[in-house]
Structure formats: C-alpha cells, structure tokens
C-alpha cells in the first residue's frame, strides 16, 4: 500500500493479510465499552456555605431584615406624604376657585423646582395667574413639608432597594421631575380592572393599600422618571 503524506513523501506500508484482517474484526466485535462503576454508593451532598461562618450568615440575615424594615418604614412615610400632598393641593384649589370662580384649575399640577420651591404648571392659565397662585401656595407649610417628604422618601426607598444603582441619588434628585397629579394618575393605572389589585376601585382605596403593594405600584408609576436617574 502507498501513502502520500503532507510533505509529498511517499511511504511504503505493508498491507495486512486477510488472516490479520479477520482477526482484527473479531477483536473489535468481541470488545465492549464497560462503564465505570462508582466504588461506593454514598450520597453526594452540596455544601451551600463552604467557607462562610455561622456568624457571617447571621450578620447577612440581620442586615437583610434591617433593610426590609427600613424600606417598609420609608414607604409608609411616602404613602402618608402622598395622601397629605393630594388632600392639601385639592384644598388649595378649592379655596382659590371659591375666591375666583373664573379660574380653571382642572389641569393645574404641582412640582418642586431644583431648589425645592413649590411650583405650578397649567396649560389653561396665564403666566401671571400662575405666578399669583404660586405666591399664595408658598405659604402652605403643610403642603411643602408633605411634598418634600414624598420626594425624599422615594429616594430613600430606591437606595434601600438598590444601593449601588442609586448611590448618587440625594434628597433633591427628583426635584423638577415629579408632577403630583401625573404621578397619581400613573399610580392609579397600575390597578388593572381585570388584573392584580382590581378590587380597589377608588383613588382613596388605592392609596390605602398594604404598604408593600403601594411601594411596588408607586415604583412602577415612577419607572420613566427613575430610569433617567439610574
């Protein structure tokens, strides 16, 4: 038999005889692959805390509990602040409408500027009318405190949920980004008529839900704003 290798060198190999071929076939036929059998049938156990002491595990568990309790406390404050902000803002609009029935305050919304001052936005009022309303609004300490708490509480909750992602947020980070009525409207949309939370029909019922559900739905309502700061 002739073989040409990659270097074009011709080698000569002796072809196996028919007897040798028959012997090789018989050897292959009789040969079988034998799977390896474990020497013992001992059960395999997974060590989930290799190299971690019980003290470290307890420390981690205690920290997780601390963060959870702190988050619940923050959301309770936010929940209260949102309800107070809404009620005080509605009261403010009612008083102003009673004084001037010609004012159309249906689209009037509330926000804070970068310095934390209460500001108003409206597509129906003139700049002068808005300025006059803002002057009156500036003396409403209860609304100012509640709306400020709403901002700082949301930031605190975000940092507790993900301290790394929101490490750069501070108490004034969301100033200028949150519109009270807009946020409330987005929050209400999380309660789907045929989905989760469908039993809560009115805004009052939706604002009084369990604090865990409130925090989740408020976070979803805040998503477009949160992403701009992430």
Summarize the structure in words.
With 230 residues, the chain is mainly alpha-helical. Helices cover 54% and strands 6% of the residues. The strands form 2 sheets. Strands 1-2 form a two-stranded antiparallel ribbon. The protein has a two-stranded antiparallel sheet with strand order 3-4. Strand 3 and strand 4 form a beta hairpin.
Keywords:
6% strand, mainly alpha, two-stranded antiparallel sheet, disordered N terminus, 7 helices, 230 residues, 4 strands, two-stranded antiparallel ribbon
Secondary-structure blueprint:
Blueprint: E1 2-4, E2 10-12, H1 18-30, H2 54-99, E3 109-112, E4 118-121, H3 127-137, H4 141-161, H5 180-188, H6 203-207, H7 211-229
Antiparallel strand pairs: 1-2, 3-4
Helix pairs in contact: 2-4, 2-7, 5-7
Shape: elongated
Main pleated sheet = 2 strands, antiparallel
* Low-pLDDT ranges: 1-18, 28-41
- Strand proportion, as a percent range, falls in 5-15%
Mean pLDDT across the residues is 81
Helix share, percent:
40-55%
Total beta strands:
4
- For the biggest β-sheet, the strand order reads 1-2
Distance between the termini: 73 Å
How many whole angstroms does the radius of gyration measure? 36 Å
How many H/I helical runs? 7
Q: Order of helices and strands, N to C? A: EEHHEEHHHHH
By secondary-structure content and strand pairing, the structural class works out as mainly alpha
